[in-house]
């Protein structure tokens, strides 16, 4: 907020994402308000709440239309309105082609190199283009000035920066790509690779989580577009404009004032053990994600199997609680994953379980932030075993929740977070026996060592919080605007 006021005075802020920060749904007790399970939402919401402005997103809740006004606006958060949520309505055909199809069956597996073959259909691409145009029109309608800052979020809107640029040439458009960017060889299989790159280069600044993804993007542009690439200056000149390509590691809001005091780790542990009917002496491992094949959920269960084979004295003493929020569940790949998870859990539970003891508890339900915070605080270890992940905010949320400085993070080397959270136990999720040994190391780690590691991890997350993430992008935007103003002055 201070950066906006001081460095970019009189600049309005517009955020664009597919997922909306607040969803209104019809529930048994009337209209209910939900916060979706989305890293993007947890990161962007505190920023937009602080800076105000307009957030444009797909209105997908069953009660979204009736809670919005005639301009499709609703002020949020409902208890302390701070910014305008502008909802964009999509037809079923648009939702299927743009969101389920091109974004989630095409770009999602492509960018994650997730060994799930990307599916590219011409009809989905048509929808993707049409929905990007629809959102670009919404940005132009909502803009009150000629020079807003538009924060474009994620792979749903690769074409939006160019479309907005055509109508608001002086806007500062910052596009943040929340998922990885693959190397140019992998990217080359996308039939519309040039159009995607061209669309993204309508941005003034293009952000990725880590430098590797910036390098991969720059390499893709260099290979497929007539452009000038300045690797040292991290800039691409294309079609008479320059785009800065930088890494901005996303983070979370540090929870200092938001965690109620009574929720100590001991309290949380008692609560979780009671809720899941677990014996008081078991050690707890937790995993928290959307049910997605990029998250390595099956792989951590295989690692549990290896762990029990190597360390049979732990059978009966360790429970893995896996929260798997349903996600994109109308897609075949997600349905298949759910089936596979259930089958594997049944197998492992049959192999190592006994009367009153199930080694893996799979909970395919969405949980709110308070419930998750209790789980993090109750856990002896938290496992993040993504096969490939832009950043992964669960790793950071776990660290932020542990104000008792205990607990161990087991973290995939292929999550962007592993570049910052060096005191975690870093694992290769493709190596089940290696990950099983990491569980053993975590479970037998002396408390002094846990504290030493956790203290350092907490320093990193506290200082590299989401305000720093947004602040660095806005500072770069301010520098860019100053440069443009100097140029205008001649
Ligand atoms: O990782 C990209 C991302 O947009 C995250 O920010 C978010 O957690 C996830 O995908 C949510 O996906 P969806 O909005 O499709 O449920």
UniProtKB/TrEMBL annotation:
The keyword Ribosomal protein does not apply. GO terms for molecular function: alpha,alpha-trehalose-phosphate synthase (UDP-forming) activity. Keywords: Membrane, Transmembrane, Transmembrane helix. Signal peptide: none annotated. One of its GO terms (biological process) is trehalose biosynthetic process. The keyword Transmembrane helix applies. Belongs to the glycosyltransferase 20 family. This is Trehalose-6-phosphate synthase.
């Amino acid at each position: 907020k201070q950066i906006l006021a001081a460095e970019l005075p009189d600049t309005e802020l517009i955020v664009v994402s597919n997922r909306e920060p607040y969803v209104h749904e019809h529930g048994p007790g009337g209209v209910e308000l939900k916060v979706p399970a989305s890293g993007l939402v947890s990161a962007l919401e505190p920023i937009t709440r602080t800076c105000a402005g307009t957030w444009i997103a797909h209105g997908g809740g069953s009660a979204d239309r009736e809670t919005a006004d005639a301009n499709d606006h609703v002020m949020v958060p409902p208890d302390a309105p701070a910014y305008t949520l502008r909802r964009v309505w999509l037809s079923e055909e648009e939702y299927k082609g743009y969101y389920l199809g091109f974004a989630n069956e095409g770009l999602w597996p492509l960018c994650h190199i997730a060994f799930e073959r990307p599916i590219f259909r011409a009809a989905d691409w048509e929808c993707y283009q049409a929905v990007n145009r629809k959102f670009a029109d919404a940005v132009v309608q909502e803009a009150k000035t000629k020079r807003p800052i538009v924060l474009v979020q994620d792979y749903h809107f690769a074409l939006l920066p160019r479309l907005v640029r055509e109508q608001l040439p002086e806007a500062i458009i910052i596009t943040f790509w929340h998922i990885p960017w693959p190397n140019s060889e992998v990217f080359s299989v996308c039939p519309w690779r040039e159009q995607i790159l061209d669309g993204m280069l309508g941005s003034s600044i293009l952000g990725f989580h880590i430098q590797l993804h910036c390098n991969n993007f720059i390499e893709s542009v260099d290979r497929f577009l007539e452009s000038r690439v300045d690797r040292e200056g991290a800039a691409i000149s294309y079609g008479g404009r320059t785009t800065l390509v930088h890494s901005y590691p996303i983070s979370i809001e540090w929870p200092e004032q938001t965690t109620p005091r009574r929720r100590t780790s001991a309290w949380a542990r008692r609560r979780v053990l009671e809720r899941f009917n677990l014996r008081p002496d078991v050690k707890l491992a937790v995993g928290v994600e959307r049910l997605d094949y990029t998250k390595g959920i099956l792989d951590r269960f295989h690692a549990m199997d290896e762990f029990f084979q190597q360390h049979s004295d732990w059978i009966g003493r360790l429970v893995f609680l896996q929260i798997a929020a349903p996600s994109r569940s109308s897609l075949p790949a997600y349905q298949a994953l759910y089936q596979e998870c259930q089958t594997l859990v049944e197998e492992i539970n049959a192999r190592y379980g006994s009367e009153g003891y199930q080694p893996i508890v799979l909970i395919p339900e969405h949980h709110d932030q308070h419930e998750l915070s209790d789980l993090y605080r109750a856990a002896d270890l938290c496992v993040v075993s993504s096969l490939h992940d832009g950043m992964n905010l669960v790793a950071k949320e776990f660290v932020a929740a542990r104000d008792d400085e205990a607990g161990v993070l087991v973290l995939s080397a292929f999550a962007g977070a592993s570049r910052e959270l060096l005191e975690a136990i870093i694992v290769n999720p493709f190596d089940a026996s290696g990950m099983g040994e990491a569980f053993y190391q975590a479970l037998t780690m002396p408390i002094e060592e846990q504290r030493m590691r956790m203290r350092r991890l907490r320093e990193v997350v506290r200082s590299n919080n989401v305000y720093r993430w947004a602040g660095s992008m806005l500072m770069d935007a301010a520098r860019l605007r100053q440069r443009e103003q100097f140029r205008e002055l001649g």
